[in-house]
Amino acid sequence: MRPAILPFSGRCFNFLDPEPSEFGVIDSAQGLAQVCRFAGHTTDDVAVAQRSVRVSRVASQDLTLHSLFHNAAEAFVGDTRTPLRRLVENFRHPEKRIERAIFVRLGLPETLTEQRDAMAPDDEDWELPPGNDPLDERTVPVRPVAARGMFLSRVIELAGVEFVPGTMGSERREELR
């Protein structure tokens, strides 16, 4: 079995060589809409796509598109919990390579990164980087198809692009005519 999958667009995505793989924004949106935060250990399903849209709305203006795609590799590898990532040797290597391929395709730099609303209550304090307090607005989970729509709408809002299967959606409307 080769290390590849067939994403939503129907084109091969190779885990060992993601850079030349043909994948698009629709693949990221579909995958992220189907992946539940916290590996599914939540009181209700909160899609990574929904969270990504939310993060992009609170990010500084110069980082909105980057923050929308900050977890885009999870569309292909899933949402693996941080403690497990730390245990599995070399897990981050293929994930970072996929992330880099996505960012290069989008022309974005390679950096960046709700527990209260999605996780069961506990007494453990979660480490948050300074200045990253939980938002006042609560997360209301939506169905995957709605999360995908939210994600695609936000890409259009931020980048003003049309979607062509097999692309990252970076083609401007005027270039498509």
Please tell me about this protein's structure.
With 177 residues, the chain is mostly helical. Helix content is 42%, strand content 2%. It is built from nine helices and two strands, in the order ββααααααααα. It has helices spanning 25-34, 48-58, 64-68, 74-77, 82-87, 92-106, 115-118, 144-159, 173-176; strands at residues 4-5, 13-14. It is globular, with a radius of gyration of 16 Å.
SSE map:
Layout: E1 4-5, E2 13-14, H1 25-34, H2 48-58, H3 64-68, H4 74-77, H5 82-87, H6 92-106, H7 115-118, H8 144-159, H9 173-176
CATH fold node name: Hypothetical protein af1432
What is the overall pLDDT average? 77
Q: How far do the termini sit from each other?
A: 40 Å
Question: Which structural class fits the helix and strand makeup?
Answer: mainly alpha
Question: Low-confidence segments, ≥5 residues, pLDDT <50?
Answer: 112-116, 163-177
Q: What name goes with the CATH superfamily?
A: Hypothetical protein af1432
Query: H/E order of the elements?
Result: EEHHHHHHHHH
Number of strands: 2
CATH class reads Mainly Alpha
In total, how many domains does the architecture comprise? 1
How many strands, what sense, and barrel or not for the largest sheet? 2 strands, antiparallel
Number of helices: 9
Beta-sheet strand percentage?
A: under 5%
Strand order of the largest sheet: 1-2
Provide the CATH architecture. Orthogonal Bundle
Shape type: globular
